[in-house]
Amino acid sequence: MKDLWPILTSYRSPQLVHKMVHAIETLVQEKIEIMQVCGTHTWSYRRHGLDSLLPSHLSLLAGPGCPVCVTDQEDIDWVINLAQERQNTLVTFGDIMRVPGSTTSLAELRSRGTDIQIALSPLKALDIALSQPSRRVILVALGFETTVPAIAATLQSAHRLGLGNLSVALLLKQLLPALRHLFNSTRPDGLLCPGHVATITGKDAFAFLPKELDIPAAIAGFEPVDILMGLAELARQISAGAPQIANTYPRAVSDQGNLTAQSLVRSTFAPAPTRWRGLGTLDGTGYRLIGRWQRFAVTAPTDALTSLGTSQCLCHLVILGKAQPEACLHFGTECTPTRPLGPCMVSEEGTCAAHYYFPLLKPMGRTEA
Amino acid sequence: MPLTITFHSLSPWGERKHRDEVTTAASLWVLAQRCSMFMSIELIQLAHGSGGSATLRLFEQVFLPHFRDLGLQPDNDAALLSLGNDTTLAFTIDGFVVDPPFFPGGDLGILAINGTGNDLAVMGAKPLWMACSFIISAGTATATLERVVESMEHAAKVFSVQLVAGDTKVVESKGAAPQILITTAGLGILEVKEPWHVQRIRPGDELILSGTIGEHTLAVLGARHGWFERDPVTSDCAFLYPMLRKLHSIPGIHWARDVTRGGLGGIVNELAKASGYGIELYEKGIPISDLVASWCEMMGYDPLHLANEGKVLLSVDPEASPRVLAALQNTPLGKNAAPIGHVMDGGPPLVVLNTAIGGRRLVPAPSGELFPRIC
Ligand code: SF4
């Protein structure tokens, strides 16, 4: 484990960073807007203080790449309802715990004694289901293309173990097809694409961005030098006026992606419509279980729950790059990571949280409320 | 929009380029802190015990209004009580609960002795006497309790602390896993001429950290969640008095604090708030082991927000700094001591980090329970 750090620091070299920043400064002469699809990019960018180094006319917009943030309010309420059913043990990833539902949050329920367990890996749900056979264990499956193979693997193990008391509440989403829908209404100059999604899907899966949508795109890793390489590549494409899909993260991403993971996913799931915060229900952007795996599904009620929602929260605009967190009246006042009003303030990948934690600011603008 | 308030008059913060950024950030931050003060707390949540802004809010809303006029000394780890005959006592109390009670490098019993001892030692006092109270939930295995008590005995003997009084209560466990909660009160005698006190902090002071950060939280979380198959992170849990005693004769030490709950980021923010000065840190200078740094990257934790149980942060006159550093590095606990930043001239009371790659950002006070990230 300890070897990870020396490897990472090689992507944090101040000399290299300095050179890349200089290269970007030369390439970016006029105002450009780049969307960081993934919250992990936003987080790393701010945490390392990259914003204090780059030219101010290079602005970065948030995108829909934080799984918690794009989860619809109704789905949050659904999961909260599931937790409240007495026979259920809910197993979730940490981030969703504090997202406020219409009336309460999972964290609040847990502090009142509701049986909710935080898992680092979906496989933990197997242990819990095995050790507590009388409980109905529900794994809240939340995430993008990156997480889906792990959920598929969990179900396959559950099947092998003959577990009858494990089910999954499916909130999985496909980021790639969603980008098509997104660009009907937003038009950044370039797209910094998430390296971890591309590790699974491969570079070729992103090719439609320049080909069909005419948007410059670069797949980038998450270390400062990785991000700068992606930005430099985008700046180059933008100034040359020649959109392409570039892979600036070749140490992890191949053209085809992880074929084993892809076939595991195909044998377990089929595409299905799903609800996105801010975007509504989009065809082919979610997953449903197929064949013998269907028995694991807990399905969301078809008659939508009445969600009161947090109507003044701008998360639905923030995740589409249409508003900066600072434009929200609640940012940093009523809404903080301790008492989040919306999901973007909860998750480490949430834009509001990144801006709250690392508030070295350039003037913020651009709200299309 | 309430975010347009600026505090341009507040401070000369480094170069002009940075100053504007920081003042805008400052206005936001200060506003955020203020507004959050007025929000009422309906239900106590785990975040309120994390040592971050939620804990502060609980303290300021619930405790401070009632205890303010009763002699409370809230800005230091221990209260100083002068007996008028050249003797000053340091007095403190702390509660300990940890899940699991045993983890690599320490356990609940050792924590209960060290934690309270350290709160006295960082004032420049010698920890001498302690009293302890046990709240044990029904269902706790006696063997577990015995192990904890044995380690307390061992720690107290090694560090010549007398355990002079105690109390035990048993409570219902109400469906939750049984737990032991230990509270220890400690009394010591001040050994330094001028107590190490937040009011003595001066602009230009150098900040010295006695060693690597992040071990304790990772050791406990790792033991709780079964992360360590090999390469466990070992808690840095330690009794700081033997190391700090070596500094007693050095003039120019203004303030010291053990870097516990809330982590370095939390403590430095408290320092900024209590002293009224801004703080500048250098990420490159902050000691961290490869193992801890690697785990933090894996789990998405900011090491600045992880707790330690055997580290001290000192604010010292720059002239005294080489002596302090050398004295620390001569002790086993302080061998990795390093200068990590300094106290700025003026406010706003914020913490700026110069990142390892050459950027700058603010370090926020930690805000709540640590949740592992999603992917
Ligand atoms: S600051 Fe809070 S309320 Fe505003 S958009 Fe972000 S999460 Fe929503």
Briefly characterize the structure.
The complex is a heterodimer of chains A (369) and B (375). Chain A is α/β, with parallel strands linked by helices and 369 residues long. Chain A has helices at 4-9, 14-27, 39-47, 73-84, 106-111, 124-131, 148-160, 175-182, 195-201, 208-213, 224-240, 259-268, 315-318, 351-357; strands at residues 32-38, 58-65, 88-92, 116-118, 136-143, 166-172, 190-194, 217-220, 245-247, 269-276, 280-289, 297-298.
Fold topology:
The complex is a heterodimer of chains A (369) and B (375).
Chain A: H1 4-9, H2 14-27, E1 32-38, H3 39-47, E2 58-65, H4 73-84, E3 88-92, H5 106-111, E4 116-118, H6 124-131, E5 136-143, H7 148-160, E6 166-172, H8 175-182, E7 190-194, H9 195-201, H10 208-213, E8 217-220, H11 224-240, E9 245-247, H12 259-268, E10 269-276, E11 280-289, E12 297-298, H13 315-318, H14 351-357
Parallel strand pairs in A: 1-2, 1-7, 3-4, 3-5, 5-6, 6-12, 7-8, 8-9
Antiparallel strand pairs in A: 10-11
Helix pairs in contact in A: 2-11, 3-14, 7-12
Chain B: H1 16-37, H2 53-67, E1 79-82, E2 88-96, E3 102-103, E4 106-107, H3 108-121, E5 125-137, H4 142-158, E6 162-171, E7 180-190, E8 206-209, H5 215-225, H6 241-245, E9 253-258, H7 263-275, E10 279-282, H8 290-299, E11 312-316, H9 321-329, E12 338-343, E13 351-354, E14 360-362
Parallel strand pairs in B: 5-6, 10-13
Antiparallel strand pairs in B: 1-2, 2-7, 3-4, 5-7, 8-11, 8-12, 9-11, 10-12, 13-14
Helix pairs in contact in B: 3-4
Can you characterise this structure?
The complex is a heterodimer of chains A (369) and B (375). By secondary structure, chain A is of the alpha/beta class. Chain A has two domains: 1-306, 3-Layer(aba) Sandwich (Rossmann fold), CATH 3.40.50.11750; 315-357, no CATH class. Chain A has helices at residues 4-9, 14-27, 39-47, 73-84, 106-111, 124-131, 148-160, 175-182, 195-201, 208-213, 224-240, 259-268, 315-318, 351-357; strands at residues 32-38, 58-65, 88-92, 116-118, 136-143, 166-172, 190-194, 217-220, 245-247, 269-276, 280-289, 297-298. Chain A has a five-stranded parallel β-sheet. In chain A, strands 4-3-5-6-12 form a five-stranded parallel β-sheet, with helices on both faces. In chain A, strand 8, helix 11 (224-240) and strand 9 (245-247) form a beta-alpha-beta unit. In chain A, helix 2 runs parallel beside helix 11 (224-240) and helix 7 crosses helix 12. Chain B is of the alpha+beta class and 375 residues long. Chain B has two domains: 1-66 and 195-375, PurM-like C-terminal domain (Phosphoribosyl-aminoimidazole Synthetase, Chain A, domain 2), CATH 3.90.650; 83-190, PurM-like, N-terminal domain (60s Ribosomal Protein L30, Chain: A). Helix content of chain B is 31%, strand content 22%. Classes of the chains: A alpha/beta (369), B alpha+beta (375). The complex binds iron/sulfur cluster. The site of iron/sulfur cluster has 15 residues of chain A, from helix 13.
